[in-house]
Amino acid sequence: MNATGRLITPLLILFSFIAISIFLLTSTLINNHTDHFVLYAANAILFVISIISFLIQQKGLHNKNPHVFVRSVMGGMMFKMVICIIAVIAYVSISGNNFNKRAIFISLFLYLIYLATEVFVVMKMNKNKKANG
Fold this sequence. Notes:
- By secondary structure, the protein is an all-alpha fold.
- Helix content is 87%, strand content 0%.
- It has five helices and no strands.
- The longest helix has 32 residues, at 101-132.
C-alpha cells in the first residue's frame, strides 16, 4: 500500500465505523426522531471533503516553503466549512419545515470527529516527513 493510502486508512476506518454505527442504531435514531438518512449523507460528505482536504494538505507539506503548508491547512479548513455550510443550507431549503435539528447537530459532532482524525493523520505525516528529511 502506498503512503497516501496508508495515511487515509484512519479516515476510511472512521467512515466505516460511523456508517455501521448508524445502521445498527437506526431504530434508536428513529425512536428519537432523528433522520438517519441525513446522518448517512453527512458521513459521506464529511468523508469526501476530509479526503480532499487531506490531499491539499499533503501537497502543501511536500513544498519546501513552510508557508505553503500553513496556507494549505487554512485553505482546506475553509473548503470544508464552506461545503458544510452549503450542505446545511441545501438540506434546510429542500426539506422546508421538516428539517431535523437533531440530525444536523449530530452531523456537526461528526465534523469534529473527522477534524480530529484528520489532524491526527496530518501530524503523523508531518512527523514522518521530519524524520525522513
